[in-house]
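dude i think i finally got it to work??
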Amino acid sequence: MLLTPEYLFRGVSAITPEFLARRGIRALALDVDNTLAVHDSPELPPAVAAWLGQMRTAGIAMCIVSNNNKARVAPFAAKLGLPFVSLAAKPLPFGLAAARRRCAVPKRAFAAVGDQLFTDRLAAALYGVPGLVVLPLAPETHKSIERRRRWEAPYIQKYYDQGGTLL
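look at this
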């Protein structure tokens, strides 16, 4: 179950404050590329910007956690007014641990959001928090990630085979 999603969402905007409240989640670690923005883009889609506002209004603490470098992550996080962890080394859980401490919540109130099973979902599983997997915002442009998407397919199918639905 380390790679099979617990939850699979159409995108971040499908994650609602009500969904989080029912599970006692008060803080989120957020991936950047193909989760909040298209790879290498500094721009947020309007639906994602609206969702961030909805999360803030609901009192959900958020921290960016990305494997990307500080040059990519810092300006993006500053634009959103969020703390960040760059070079997070996901799937290792250390970046999530740092983000949780910055959000000042207990582990039981924390979840990780991301689009990749071999980094975001696995990091959440190894850290022992829910992994909220989202469909990528755009088709992959990086060959290594495109290859991993093919490797992810059996785990996504297992999610559906076990009765999971796209939320």
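The two ends are 19 Å apart (CA to CA).
im so relieved honestly
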